[in-house]
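Posting for a labmate who doesn't have an account.
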Amino acid sequence: MSNHCSQIMMLRSKLKTKLDPMRYEHSLSVSFTCMNLAMRYGYDIDKAELAGLMHDCGKRFADEIILKKCISHKIPVTDAEMKALPVLHAKYGAWLAENKYGIEDPEIISAIACHTTGKADMSVLDKIVYIADYIEPRRYKADNLPQMRRLAYEDLDQTMYEILKSTLEYLAKKGADADPMTATAYEYFKQLVAAEK
């Protein structure tokens, strides 16, 4: 436990120097929300805290610079990601977490990597980080936040479905490109939720 605390404190102080103040506060808020959801669903609180804290560690540069960094570090970038650059910080963040911050847990790396798009067959930690990023207390823009904040503590799969659905609707309304991974995740959770009913 004390080893985990010292790792968290060390990572917090590093992130505080790397991220802008609002992004850093968001990262703390997501981390605390992840811990809450972990308690609710009987998941490892320490892993949830660490994944939440580090989820945006790659979001310290403009999207174009993140793309250049992905290319220079030989991180594969799909054509779809080239059209939807804001999702790329997740992939870059997963690389940073592993290669610069020394995080070796594949579950944590996965949760960071898919927190912008979701994916089919997500682990409990993947879902916790994705949902916490959407519902954390400092978020205020999404119209369905009150419902999602309540639902998150009732059913992770249903929450994933609803958030993915509203994300795709929002991007379509804006005329922005959605990463195909988000559509794949949406179809997966749509079928899962239908089967559970």
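Reply:
Got it, the structure tokens are right above this. Residues 21-41 form the longest helix (21 residues).
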